[in-house]
Amino acid sequence: MVQYQSHLDTSFAALSDATRRGVLDQLVQSDASITQLAYLFGMTLTGMKKHVSVLEEAGLVATRKVGRVRTCRLGARTLADEAAWIERYRQVWAERFNALDTVVEELKQQEESDGRESGE
Amino acid sequence: MDAKVANNPADIKDGTTTERTSDRELVVTRTFNGPVHLVFKAWTTPELLMRWWAPESFGINLVGCEVDARTGGRYRFAFDVPGQPEPMAFVGTYLEVTPPTRLVWTNEETEEGSVTTATFEERDGKTHLVLHDLYPSKDALDAALASESTGGWTEQFDQLDIVLASAK
């Protein structure tokens, strides 16, 4: 079984908090350590860790520990913006189909020329 | 939740439309300028599939294509992905093959993959395709929506901008 609470729900829950939205805004500017984020938002390290872990679970933020510093950056998985995903899905098919057009055109021409030959 | 993707000029040009028609289903449509038996052939012949199945912008090559296009037959598409040592395989079973009008196959790379039904209909020498991607549950489609499984990192990062703008 997929233990999957709707990803959208997770994302929206993550974004329901002003601090977490602020953290995302901050990470758009540049990566930052949890310590830096805690300082910027006037929070304890523990408090900031909690916010970051919520964002991380939603795929909005990715963290990486180098030495003793945990650096946060924007997650590659974004808010599952459904329309955007569907558009990408469409583009996958559209690209395939554009290539398929060429194949079909060639098959048509081949069939026509075969038809002419056998008709003679 | 329905999310219809609005047609922009590029869509109209290539004519591919996509719509989420239900909690667990996506529908793609397209018209091809050729008779249905040729379009069907291009969907069921490995040498022809090799020429069009890999989306160009992904920068991946289809390196293997085994297709047993009979009801109950299996397929296996293998892609070379830059930076990955092993090819990425897409596998499944043809649940129905009815030439030249209907193809139904499973997508088994993930446990809760979709079942895809492609229906081909010829009108005035053109072939109209309707492709349904039906997921086993809403959660499965939501998971697919949230996953990276279709690749496309560049597009992914472009979308980050959109998402972040809407998150404000």
What does this structure look like?
The complex is a heterodimer of chains A (120) and B (168). In chain A, 66% of the residues lie in helices and 12% in strands. Chain A is built from 5 helices and 3 strands; from the N terminus they run ααβααββα. In chain A, helix 3 crosses helix 4. The termini of chain A are far apart. In chain A, a hairpin with a 2-residue loop joins strand 2 (61-66) and strand 3. Chain A folds into 2 domains: 7-74, Arc Repressor Mutant, subunit A (Orthogonal Bundle), CATH 1.10.10; 81-120. Chain B has 168 residues and is α+β, with helices and mostly antiparallel strands. Helices cover 27% and strands 38% of the residues of chain B. Chain B has 5 helices and 9 strands; from the N terminus they run E-H-E-E-H-H-E-E-E-E-E-E-H-H. At the A-B interface, helix 1, helix 2 and helix 5 of A face strand 2, strand 3, helix 2, helix 3 and helix 4 of B.
Topology (SSEs and partners):
The complex is a heterodimer of chains A (120) and B (168).
Chain A: H1 7-15, H2 18-29, E1 32-33, H3 34-40, H4 45-57, E2 61-66, E3 69-74, H5 82-119
Antiparallel strand pairs in A: 1-3, 2-3
Chain B: E1 3-4, H1 9-14, E2 17-22, E3 25-32, H2 36-44, H3 46-52, E4 61-67, E5 74-80, E6 88-98, E7 102-106, E8 115-123, E9 126-134, H4 138-146, H5 153-167
Antiparallel strand pairs in B: 1-2, 2-3, 3-9, 4-5, 5-6, 6-7, 7-8, 8-9
Computed CA radius of gyration of chain B, to the nearest angstrom: 17 Å
What best-fitting shape of chain B do the alpha-carbon axes yield?
A: globular
Query: Radius of gyration of chain A over alpha carbons?
Result: 25 Å
Global geometry of chain A: rod-shaped
Which second-level CATH architecture of the largest domain in chain A applies? Orthogonal Bundle
Instruction: Determine the CATH topology of chain B.
Output: Alpha-D-Glucose-1,6-Bisphosphate, Chain A, domain 4
Give the domain tally of chain B: 1
C-alpha termini separation of chain B: 22 Å
At CATH level 2, the architecture of chain B is 2-Layer Sandwich
The SSE string of chain B, one letter per element, is EHEEHHEEEEEEHH
Termini distance of chain A? Answer: 63 Å
Measured by residues with Cβ under 8 Å of the partner chain's Cβ, the largest interface is: A-B, 45 and 56 residues
The biggest sheet of chain A, with number of strands, parallel, antiparallel or mixed sense and barrel status, is:
3 strands, antiparallel
Q: Percent of residues of chain B in helical segments?
A: 25-40%
Alpha-beta content class of chain B: alpha+beta
Number of strands of chain A: 3
Question: What is the N-to-C order of secondary-structure elements of chain A (H for helix, E for strand)?
Answer: HHEHHEEH
Strand line-up of the largest beta sheet of chain B: 1-2-3-9-8-7-6-5-4
